[in-house]
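Everyone, describe these structure tokens:
***
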Amino acid sequence: MSGRPIGRAVSRRTFLHVAGGVLAAGMTSGGCQSLPDSAPAQTPAVSELARAVTPRLIANRPVVAVAQAMNYEPSQVRKTVRELIDQTGGLRGVVKSGDRVAIKVNLTGGVKVRPLPGVAPVDSYVTHPNVVRPLIEAVKEAGARDVTLVEAVYENASWKEWGYEDLAAELDVKLLDLNMTDPYPDYAQVNVGEGAFIYSDFTFNHILEECDVFISVPKMKCHYSAGVTLSMKNLVGLVPARFYRLSAQHNHRSALHGHDDEVGSRLPRVIVDLNRARPIRYALIDGVKTTDGGEGPWISTMAPVDAHLLVAGMNPLATDAVATALMGFDPTAAPMTMPFVRSDNHLALAAQMGFGTIQLNEIELRGAPIDAVKVAFKPA
């Protein structure tokens, strides 16, 4: 039932050759780079879901907005999020009247994980509902007829424990566990498209296939295996965990990571495959109160960080590139260097595949300047 791995990935040598000198030219022209003759041809055809989205991702100079929020006080966060949305062009061009919208939050780990002492999960490693609230309000004002918050949660108690049941009741939106088929009778098999790195298709809840607009709202964090976890990495939580495990004893999607000797190459490419199968139309990154040194309390070096940052954009790759720079890192960094200390750079791989640019001088930045508000995160 799980998506089919195709067992092929671009080598690290080929990736370094491509990423090192040709990304900027390719992104300026809006095209996708071909790999050298010595590597299997990568023709980044897009999935059906991506056909309407990809041209808009790469045709124009992407706009990313940055703002500070000192805490999660609802009125302050609402004002700041609405300013970010306005600065990125508003949602009228993203959400049309009658659209179904799915918003992917990051509720990693589940309620059984012991949080950092004295620090709530929503103030450290999961998306805070007060960041999602004004986004839902804006989406509805733009004309959405149906809004669903989605996540393949570790336990359903996560929705209640972290404030999402109250949020859903307050704003009349749905909550959907992507591990399950509900409200459909079965799962969808969604193709990645030609030139997929690892998986030719993925097993998804049908809402990911049927929604008109898909939005990613991650927590701004470093990641032990992927360097950073932002709007694109957030999509690892789309697939039903039980179909993507190397062992039945695992409680995480271990098959997406692979065996220990392949994680650094495999996981970044799986991230790109997931984003091709289910493209992101808008990204809003919660970096108000977060962590560095790891993505969750199971990483011993994780520590709380009050970064006071919110980042938004219609191009998820450009948005993640700016967020990476706000964390004090270089979004174009070579594999096995900070923050990608154990892996290839999934942002560079996505740029190679035509998602857009990670060159900061090719992104139109609005709001707070990066150098004025960036915070020095410690890598995992």
